[in-house]
Every structure is written in structure tokens, then in C-alpha cells.
Amino acid sequence: MIGKISGRVDYKSDDHVLIDVRGVGYIVYCSDRTLMGLPGAGEAVALFTDLVVREDLLQLYGFPTLVEKEWHRLLMSVQGVGAKASLAILGALGPDGVSRAIALGDWSAVKAAKGIGPKTAQRVVNELKDKAAVIMAMTGHSAQVTEDPSALIEPAPVPKPRTMPAQKPNASAQAEALSALGNLGYAPSEAAGAVAHAAADEPEADTAALIRAALRLLAPKG
């Protein structure tokens, strides 16, 4: 399994990038969103990758963050969603948008992706609503590939410390609130939906505030 590619951009096409890794070129398929964020030819790049193996095909798919790669793998577990459809969804919504759509049951947001019909969009939301909590909790904590360009040519004698990716204001609070609601016995899907609503209303809220707001949303009405 090839889990990460680090090298230099040779060229970018409309659906893939060719990465030169010390003289060996790897074709890596990416979403439109990922391709737009890649550097130009000759510049250093690193991507998390997922290798799809079929009888007549070996294809690498690339992602800038680990959480996006995990969303790709989870999306492909849905019947009728292959690698191309998964990239279309991630390209249209991004990993955060996919999290929100599934947490809120918003299949129309998923349907906005190119080539995704209403039945497939509904299937994505219905099948993943109870499976996505772990990946949602990764948001804000997932590794982002960072590389020292010189290391692509000569191994560095002493590894440089990696730069930690910037976290969203309450990403960790959302993960902690989601865990707390799970410990209180709430189902992953309803807990994720309540936390997503609370976070949207109070973007700077801490863990305690998110839990209180989510519990109010989950309280029986009437």
C-alpha cells in the first residue's frame, strides 16, 4: 500500500498530477479542489494517497490531509460510489462540507457534486450518518502533509520538526463535545447533528458551551 507521495510536480492535468519522486513518476488522481491547491511545475509537493487495486487497474488517489483521505475511503464504502464519485463530492464540498452535510442529513448538498444523483446522495447520508462520527472528530486534528523540499533531493541528516497545521477555533471543542454526548448515550448521528448546529451558531464556543447548546437542541420538545 502506498500511503504517501513526496516529490516534485512534473505537470498537472484536469484530473491528475504527475509527481516525480527521485526520477520515478507517479500519476496521482485528485479532486478539482486539491488540484487547484497544488504548487506549480518543479515545486515540492506531498500528498496522502489511497491505492485502488482492480484486476486491470492500479490507480493512486491523492489528498492534502489525512481526514480527507479517510472521507474518501468511507464514501467509497457506499453502494454506487466509486473513486470518481468520491472525488467529485470532496471536490464540491471539501471534508468539512461533507461532515456538515452528513451530520445535518443534508443530502441536497451532496447532490450538488458533479455526477451525483438524488438517490446516491440520499444513500450517502443514510449509510454514513452512524459511521462518520470518528472522522468528524478528526477535523482540526488531522495531519497535513508538509515536506522540506531539500529532503526530496538529499536525505536530511537531522529531521526538521514538522509544522503543526492551524486548527479551527473550536475544532477540538467539537470533537470533545461529540465524545461527551456519546458517553451520555446519544447516538452518533444525533450527537453529530446537534454539535454541528451548535458550532454553526457559536463558532467560538468552548467545549462546555457546545455541550450545553447541543443538549438544549437534543432536549425533548413540548
UniProtKB/TrEMBL annotation:
Pfam families: HHH_5, RuvA_C, RuvA_N. Residues 171-222 are annotated as: Domain III. Keywords: Cytoplasm, DNA damage, DNA recombination, DNA repair, DNA-binding, Hydrolase. One of its GO terms (molecular function) is DNA helicase activity. The keyword DNA-binding applies. CDD domains: UBA_RuvA_C. Its main location: cytoplasm. It comes from the Bacteria. InterPro entries: DNA_helicase_Holl-junc_RuvA_I, Hlx-hairpin-Hlx_DNA-bd_motif, NA-bd_OB-fold, RuvA, RuvA_2-like, RuvA_C, RuvA_C_sf. Residues 1-64 are annotated as: Domain I. Residues 73-92, 108-127 form the Helix-hairpin-helix DNA-binding motif class domain. Homotetramer. Forms an RuvA(8)-RuvB(12)-Holliday junction (HJ) complex. HJ DNA is sandwiched between 2 RuvA tetramers; dsDNA enters through RuvA and exits via RuvB. An RuvB hexamer assembles on each DNA strand where it exits the tetramer. Each RuvB hexamer is contacted by two RuvA subunits (via domain III) on 2 adjacent RuvB subunits; this complex drives branch migration. In the full resolvosome a probable DNA-RuvA(4)-RuvB(12)-RuvC(2) complex forms which resolves the HJ. The RuvA-RuvB-RuvC complex processes Holliday junction (HJ) DNA during genetic recombination and DNA repair, while the RuvA-RuvB complex plays an important role in the rescue of blocked DNA replication forks via replication fork reversal (RFR). RuvA specifically binds to HJ cruciform DNA, conferring on it an open structure. The RuvB hexamer acts as an ATP-dependent pump, pulling dsDNA into and through the RuvAB complex. HJ branch migration allows RuvC to scan DNA until it finds its consensus sequence, where it cleaves and resolves the cruciform DNA. Belongs to the RuvA family. Has three domains with a flexible linker between the domains II and III and assumes an 'L' shape. Domain III is highly mobile and contacts RuvB. This is Holliday junction branch migration complex subunit RuvA. The gene is ruvA.
